Amino acid sequence: MILFPAIDIRNGKCVRLIQGDYGKEAVYGDPLEMAKKWATTGAQFLHIVDLDGALIGTSQNLEIIEAIVQVVDIPVQVGGGIRSLEQIERLLAIGVKRVILGSAALGNEELLTEALKRYSESIAVSIDAKNGFVATDGWTKTSTETAVSFAKKLEEKGLQTIIYTDIAKDGMLAGPNFAELDVMNNATKMNVIASGGVSTTQDLAKLEQLQMYGAIIGKALYTGQLDLQLALKEVSPC
Known about the structure:
The active site is at residues 8, 128. One of its GO terms (cellular component) is cytoplasm. The chain is α/β, with parallel strands linked by helices. The protein has one domain: TIM Barrel (Alpha-Beta Barrel). The chain is 39% helix and 29% strand. An 8-stranded parallel β-barrel has the order 1-4-5-6-7-10-11-12, surrounded by 7 helices. The radius of gyration is 16 Å and the shape is globular.
């Protein structure tokens, strides 16, 4: 199972939000320095979210993301406000390994279809759920589409990787929603990356038992509740 340290960028800073609430923010310094730290510690992959982009609807922190890609020697996946083919191509051009679509995948079928046609292995879709329904626009809106039905549609289109986040768990350090993750993982054959609530090595062991492809770790790393070196020792390398 791959562990993805999360770097959320807002106003040029590395931050963490509670349940996606832009009014509940903790600042943890420079995103570039955090990227170096996690890469040096042994991370296999970095997960970056442009929070400004997610809220506004277009990428806002490309310079910082490009600097991160250039300074670390591990792959980087990026999401947040990516809603055009041009933005996807720009991120891939600066060296991003995987581009994550969110709201765009739900509301723009043409974009998703073309992105998968051109860059299948380099595209992931983030399914953020609230009470089992897909949340959009930086978690500020909830659609009428269930997360599982949406995932199945994505798989039919040829998508290979999804990131599944239970908003109620994100930033709460209370453990992931294992039941929903298990349902999602068994509903499709796609690679499922668990996100939200991961805070202990026991959480990671359970996710590996459920055969998750990966797990994103956020707040627990920044508060010191979970040590990345110890966490990496708890999972089988991919």
